[in-house]
Amino acid sequence: MEKILQVDDLHVSFITQNKVTEAVKGITFDVHKGETLGIVGESGSGKSVTARSIMKLLPSPPSLMTAGNIQFFEKPISEYTVQQMDTIRGNDISMIFQDPMTSLNPTIRIGKQIDETLRKHQKFSSAEAKKRTIDMLKMVGITNAEERYNQYPHEFSGGMRQRVMIAMALSCQPKLLIADEPTTALDVTIQAQILRLMKRMQQQFDTSIILITHDLGVVAGMCDRVIVMKDGEVVEQNTIEKVFSAPKHPYTKKLLNALPQINAKKEPKGQITLPKDIQPDQPLIEVQDLTQEFPMGAGRSIKAVDSISFSIHPGETLGLVGESGSGKSTTGRLLLQLQKGIGGDILYRGMSLNRMNTKEMKQLRKEIQIIFQDPYASLNPRMKILDIIGQPLDIHKLYNTKKERRERVEDLLQLVGLQKEHAMRYPHEFSGGQRQRIGIARALAVEPKFIVCDEPLSALDVSIQAQIVSLLKDLQKKFGLTYLFIAHDLSVVKHISDRIAVMNAGKIIELAESEELYSNPIHPYTKSLLDAVPVPNPAIESVRLNRNIERRNFHIKGGVLKEVSDGHWVLQ
């Protein structure tokens, strides 16, 4: 089989004023025509550095390829000029980046950004490029593509921005597609659709794919071979079947063991000691007919949250799942009054948040906090961790001296598994998992009682996800916390949640105990979500992804939640 890419003894270092850090340490692999090669490993293992080296996207300095060779169609990448690489990138080699918000220009409309690639590499006219762009947006599951064509990146959800990136990468039908965590921000049904799209394109055009991911379920269904990386080195390399059935390296075994199993039984939650001022027999949060709309232009609007009602009890974790754009994150922001709804009411400990003024809400924010989805964007890059975590303490005047403030920050860092010395560092000096721990520490600084966890695991690899879930459970037991846990990874949601609410088109369509929902889903949409969850079994997953199943659309209009069994509610 023809080799289109060869990486031989690659060494990449980063040079700073104080030290030289070797990020990639002598890795060797090749990619054949029409093959999918998976690269897995924890954050910081060198996966993305390897991918960017192939594309010559690492700035030099501070990066430096100290040894080795990369050949694309038997020609060393090092011999390509800047102009030649500009021609190759986006045309012969395309890349889907992990963070769509930093990869899309916030000042240019989405459609024009994809058009630019087609006009440059395919010599399309403006009309041809627009038609192809709209077709690509539809292919990756973006509804109302003609209208979305003229919108800006900030008008899209995180998952929809990732779909735009995928459409852009696939538009020129490249010979090699490097997908760096392409489905991280996507829900399971869109993830399955995107992976099937990539498979179809690969079969049609004989495209080769390098798939970088932390989701071993995705690797099981997509890849022919897999490379396992740790600390810049390849620790295991083999066919999918052999790696999953008989892993040799202890680190590979650790990754496989860290996978949340959707069919596994939940561990008992154990006793939770609630704060003394919380009434255990009364809901902590009550949502009544909550509604929110967003303008779409031309006098039209979209109902992001459509008359939903639910409650969360003290010490409980309510999981909130659904596709991207279903209204999950909007619901979380409405609960925190980061957005004002157009209808309904939110009661916290019996108090209506909607009727509170700014001063009253500021005082109440000590009790209700949020952990954001993106640990990169939610931390100020110009502030030291001491001040990022200390800022809530400043706002609510929760210390008397600077020494007391520093000691409180250091205690919080240790509480979330970091070190006291980390207080004097900046966000860029931490991995994604460490940044998320800092976000959790900041949320805990004011000793809240209720926390909205808005996709807190989506940017993290499986072993780090397991650590963060364990940390959140431990903190809940220690401080009697109550969570709204928003996520699209149904395997994780099951194991952390007491009850789960399923959202679609702004409505809650099913609500039940987590074990009951997974073992006996009633609504067709819930069943479709569970059917789309990737399984870390190559035989099962390959069959599932190769099935030519089009995405099912569920139009939820009207209806009310009705109790079909004890505690199990379905929209009817």
UniProtKB/TrEMBL annotation:
- Which molecular function terms from Gene Ontology are attached? ATP binding; ATP hydrolysis activity
Superkingdom, natural source: Bacteria
Q: Which UniProt keywords apply?
A: ATP-binding, Nucleotide-binding, Transport
ATP-binding among the record's keywords?
yes
Parts of the chain that traverse the membrane: none
Q: Sorted alphabetically, which Pfam families does this protein's record hold?
A: ABC_tran (PF00005), oligo_HPY (PF08352)
Domain called ABC transporter: residue spans: 5-256, 285-530
What family is it from?
Belongs to the ABC transporter superfamily.
The name this protein goes by in its record: Glutathione import ATP-binding protein GsiA
